[in-house]
């Protein structure tokens, strides 16, 4: 099927309607009908402008100011990007090498802690650690 354009009509349907309109109106009445159409469009535009100014006067808010309350601006990804500012994601998330070294060090530290109770620092003291990945959990 054709694409939907103006009022659900495609390009060819509009062309056919325009041709039918020209045949029905005829060349003698076409200038008068065109003037009437232009007059209606100007009245509609004037009515929209008057309505907009009435709303702005009664509400005390300009229509342009209402755009700042648009819920589409609250995209979580954009908010997080703005909160991070200039911070790169690489600065926040440790690399795979650092994680593997930390995981190896944590395993050695845990084995040493089991062997002797007099460990100077526990794994908790090293800061937050990423949980091990369990591929059977999901």
> H/E order of the elements?
HHHH
Number of helices: 4
Judged by helices, strands and strand pairing, the structural class is: mainly alpha
> Strand share of the residues?
under 5%
Question: Which regions have little confidence, pLDDT < 50, spanning 5+ residues?
Answer: 108-112, 114-119
Cα-to-Cα separation, first versus last residue: 44 Å
Helix content bin:
55-70%
Average pLDDT reading: 74
The tally of strands reads: 0
Shape estimate: elongated
Oligomer: single chain
**Radius of gyration over C-alpha positions, nearest whole angstrom:** 35 Å
Largest sheet report: none
Give a structural overview.
The chain has four helices and no strands. The chain starts with 10 loop residues before the first helix and ends in a 23-residue tail after the last helix. The protein is elongated. Residues 108-112 and 114-119 have low confidence and may be disordered. The chain has helices at residues 11-59, 76-84, 89-92, 96-115. By secondary structure, the chain is mainly α. The protein has a domain at 11-84.
Annotate the secondary structure layout.
Elements (H helix, E strand, L loop, with lengths): L10 H49 L16 H9 L4 H4 L3 H20 L23
């Amino acid at each position: 099927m054709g694409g939907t354009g103006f009022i659900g009509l495609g390009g060819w349907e509009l062309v056919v309607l325009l041709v039918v309109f020209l045949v029905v109106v005829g060349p003698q009445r076409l200038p008068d009908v065109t003037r009437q159409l232009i007059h209606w469009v100007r009245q509609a535009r004037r009515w929209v402008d008057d309505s907009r100014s009435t709303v702005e006067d009664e509400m005390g808010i300009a229509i342009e100011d209402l755009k700042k309350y648009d819920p589409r601006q609250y995209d979580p990804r954009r908010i997080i990007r703005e909160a991070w500012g200039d911070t790169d994601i690489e600065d926040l998330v440790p690399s795979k090498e650092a994680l593997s070294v930390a995981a190896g060090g944590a395993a050695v530290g845990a084995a040493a802690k089991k062997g002797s109770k007099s460990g100077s620092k526990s794994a908790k003291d090293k800061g937050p650690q990423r949980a091990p990945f369990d591929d059977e959990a999901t």
